[in-house]
Amino acid sequence: MLMVHCRSKDDDLGAHGLAVGESFEWSFDPSWLGETLFWCSLAVEDKCLSFVAYYEGDMYTEYWYVHDDGVYGQTRHANATFYEAPWRRVSPRQY
Fold it and tell me: Which protein family is it in (predicted)?
């Protein structure tokens, strides 16, 4: 089971357990000050990673995909995929 925990300065979306093939999504209204930022932490077995899932200046990344070697983003318009963050090994319960 993949554990996903996303949050911003003002909102904690909570931890969610996802099985293979499941997805997690949310919606929000960006700050009128242009300061919206969400980051996510992922954990599975003895691996974890964290990455910025959304920030106001990046209007292109729409989807994030988890793979064996880390997390990838997919852009909205160019439909291009890029590598964002690698997994790192951790002790059990370090997440």
Answer: Belongs to the plant self-incompatibility (S1) protein family.
One-letter identity of residue 92: P
Does the pTM surpass 0.85? The reply is no
Q: Is residue 59 very low, low, confident or very high in pLDDT (cuts 50, 70, 90)? A: low
Q: Which residues of 43-58 are buried (b: 16+ CB within 10 A; e: fewer)?
A: bbeebbbeeebbbeee
Q: Which of 52, 38, 45, 39 is closest to 88 using CA atoms?
A: 45
Question: How far apart are the C-alpha atoms of 52 and 46, rounded to whole Å?
Answer: 21
Long-range CB pairs of 79-83 (<8 Å, 24+ gap) are: none
